[in-house]
């Protein structure tokens, strides 16, 4: 499934605001731009400072990154920068960097030692298509490529902006962000001893494993767009609420959607003992929390009025999506 066709299929359920077809068209457009950028970065041409690109590693990286995914993270970076009048080229590079960290997180998340999944984005996971050692190295190489792109002056000449982006991406990705959240997610399964995560613990874990990178996607757009402190705070509120809603929706879809629609296994979280809001609050409680969080997102960007339409639509898409 190409990113364009999958995005169009995914967005039929956006209910209010921009007509679904318009939002779907914009998301598909951005996905195509991101795809072109990433195809170029993952080609056989040896990059500056590189010695060689081992074909097996490069092919496995292409398998992990190209031809799938909603590309929501770069979409948020680009649309936030656009709303603020920032450079779209710089936002694309920053968003592509975030997407690569996201792809690396998925490759490692699927490993037998983590969630042990065989399908991702409608294809075999990297360790299935290749092998575990290659999948570990794919994740490592995607992460460093992400930082290389974000730090590259080609797309962003201002060194202070690049440093801000690198710092933000590092913080969102590591110990106190995505990686730390993944550890807490596994802890909740009880594999390191008895664990009993209440609703607040679960929300903190979600904010880390998923929310931090989604919130940084928005923040990247804010940095590129030159947002002031007040605007940054409003956009952070939006990004954090969107991140929470995104993981709750993923956990609802794990219960309700088919593997075919999702392009990955479903119905696994409960048996694995994952801590989710669906488990803690029930499906209706989780849905109500999603609706509340969409309201928080809408309030957070109210100061931009009509200019924030796409960000409002993105929040609704996050909870209405079917994939
Ligand atoms: C899946 O993210 C992992 C979670 C954080 C829940 P996405 O649903 O954005 O995955 P892709 O990029 O569209 O495949
Ligand atoms: C993943 O959460 C969060 C990541 C940091 C990758 P899940 O484990 O629920 O994501 P899926 O359902 O495998 O995509
Ligand atoms: Mg996981
Ligand atoms: Mg998983
Ligand atoms: Mg999931």
From TrEMBL:
Keywords: Isoprene biosynthesis, Magnesium, Metal-binding, Transferase
Positions with biased composition (Low complexity): 1-13
GO annotations of cellular component type: cytoplasm
Region Disordered, residue ranges: 1-20
GO BP: any one term: terpenoid biosynthetic process
Domain of life: Bacteria
Xref: InterPro entries: Isoprenoid_synthase_dom_sf, Polyprenyl_synt, Polyprenyl_synt_CS, Prenyl_diphosphate_synthase
Gene3D superfamilies associated with the record: Farnesyl Diphosphate Synthase
Signal peptide: none
GO MF annotations, alphabetized: metal ion binding; prenyltransferase activity
Necessary cofactors: Mg(2+)
Annotated family: Belongs to the FPP/GGPP synthase family.
Full protein name: Probable farnesyl diphosphate synthase
Organism per entry: Methylobacterium pseudosasicola
Upper classification of the organism: Bacteria, Pseudomonadati, Pseudomonadota, Alphaproteobacteria, Hyphomicrobiales
